[in-house]
Amino acid sequence: FPPDSSWDAAYERELQTFQDIGDAGEIWFGEESMVRIIRWLEKQKIPHDSSVLDIGTGNGVLLIELAKSGYTNLTGIDYSPSAIQLSEKVREKEGMSNIKLKVEDFLAPSAELSGFEICIDKGTFDAISLNPDNAVGKRKQYVRSLCSVLGPEGFFLITSCNWTKEELLNEFREGFEILDELPTPKFCFGGRIGNSVTALVFQRK
């Protein structure tokens, strides 16, 4: 798994590409994972002015889609300054000035990141848990950070391609309860059916 600096390099390449051809670059988890998240929020009739935090926003495309679906109180954070620059360019191109973007390390969140009603993670917990340097400690810190930024009874939607449902239930058992499992594409391998992607909704206890 690449060390942090190569994420930065990846986003710098995307930034260059975006400047060259106006393309938002790689969507790490593809279109259907965004649709799945937005559909769940709509099915639950989550008010459009609910505060939403996108953890590890990358190119910010999920926030753009949320804004297009009518959500108005959107914040994206990423520890890569290149990712935030990229998402700012995407935001400008789409004319979505109400999306807030900040360079933040989620494992050491600033004080103003608090009281969110919804937190969304597509792949950031995966990236943190694959960090060769004290992955277990970083996962515990992630859960602590999540508890500090997500308001009481807030929702946490996580999409992971590294962890099974059972493993995620175990990781987030302190302070969270599972509410829903979102349907994800199934694949068949050696006669056994598995999921390459797990998408769960937790609620802060």
Describe the structure.
The chain starts with a helix and ends with a strand. About 3% of the residues have low confidence. It has 205 residues and is of the alpha/beta class. It has a 7-stranded mixed β-sheet with strand order 3-2-1-4-5-9-6, sandwiched between helices. β1, α3 and β2 form a beta-alpha-beta unit. The protein has a single domain, classed as Vaccinia Virus protein VP39 (Rossmann fold), CATH 3.40.50.150. GO terms for molecular function: protein-lysine N-methyltransferase activity. Pfam families: Methyltransf_31. It catalyses: L-lysyl-[protein] + 3 S-adenosyl-L-methionine = N(6),N(6),N(6)-trimethyl-L-lysyl-[protein] + 3 S-adenosyl-L-homocysteine + 3 H(+). Keywords: Cytoplasm, Methyltransferase, Nucleus, S-adenosyl-L-methionine, Transferase.
Task: Give me the secondary-structure topology.
Elements: H1 4-21, H2 30-43, E1 51-55, H3 61-68, E2 73-78, H4 81-94, E3 99-103, E4 116-122, H5 124-129, H6 135-149, E5 150-160, H7 165-171, E6 176-182, E7 186-189, E8 192-195, E9 198-204
Helix pairs in contact: 1-4
